[in-house]
Automatic annotation (TrEMBL):
<dbReference type="InterPro" id="IPR029063">
    <property type="entry name" value="SAM-dependent_MTases_sf"/>
</dbReference>
<keyword id="KW-0489">Methyltransferase</keyword>
<dbReference type="GO" id="GO:0008168">
    <property type="term" value="F:methyltransferase activity"/>
</dbReference>
<protein>
    <submittedName>
        <fullName>Methyltransferase domain-containing protein</fullName>
    </submittedName>
</protein>
<dbReference type="Pfam" id="PF13489">
    <property type="entry name" value="Methyltransf_23"/>
</dbReference>
<dbReference type="GO" id="GO:0032259">
    <property type="term" value="P:methylation"/>
</dbReference>
<keyword id="KW-0808">Transferase</keyword>
Length: 221
């Protein structure tokens, strides 16, 4: 069962900063990736490794959906990690929702599902296959990799996304900005030789941007 508006407000209330609470309420109400992730792993109960977790919103959401047996979120932004971990402790989820300041270079003691949401295109092209293989290394036998990314194509949505990413870089929201927008074939070439079955579907939501959801597993998803 997906969280209702009351539960979304409860999740937001765990965060101390008013700006975080406002952002999280809006994000949970409008971004389709949270419900899509919950649906992708439904019925396959195990831990989840969230690479580039930010405040750990996905972990709070999936726990509210009661589809997880543990959550480890990684992010290089220590201030976000501290705020997210404090919220987890406020919700008394400290034993089942952990955030750690880290990049995706060292092995983690988690085998289960893996999430990579809005991370891949902020890496240079040559580093993207390594990150995808790192994700595969942390998949359980029947775990699901959930990836949201922008795909490069000739659509008007892609052009709109490029302009949006330029704005994000200009205002300093994401230092460095987008590095490489992958094509679908590039992602398949990194995953399919590892014995991973890959499925793509658009996840535009109510935006003009060229966002896609990938679900991948060693078993059919």
């Amino acid at each position: 069962m997906l969280p209702d508006s009351r539960t979304r407000r409860l999740i937001a209330s765990r965060f101390a900063r008013p700006a975080d609470r406002y952002y999280i309420r809006g994000k949970l109400a409008s971004d389709p990736v949270y419900a899509a992730t919950a649906r992708a792993i439904a019925g396959r109960r195990m831990p989840l490794l969230d690479i580039g977790c930010g405040l750990g919103i996905l972990g709070h959401y999936l726990h509210a959906c009661d589809v997880l047996d543990g959550y480890l979120g990684l992010d290089h932004d220590g201030t976000k990690i501290a705020r997210g971990q404090a919220a987890a402790e406020e919700a008394e989820l400290g034993d089942s929702l952990t955030l750690r300041e880290s990049d995706a270079t060292s092995p983690q003691p988690v085998r289960g599902h893996v999430a990579l949401l809005d991370v891949l295109h902020y890496l240079p092209r040559e580093r993207q296959p390594d990150l995808l293989r790192y994700a595969v290394d942390h998949l359980a036998g029947d775990g699901v990799l959930i990836l949201r990314t922008v795909l490069a194509d000739d659509s008007w949505r892609f052009r709109a996304t490029v302009w949006e990413e330029r704005f994000i870089k200009a205002v300093g929201w994401i230092p460095g900005g987008a590095q490489h927008f992958p094509q679908e074939d590039e992602i398949r070439e990194a995953l399919e030789p590892e014995g991973i079955t890959v499925s793509f579907q658009p996840l535009y939501g109510r935006t003009p941007y060229n966002s896609w959801l990938l679900t991948a597993s060693r078993q059919p998803v």
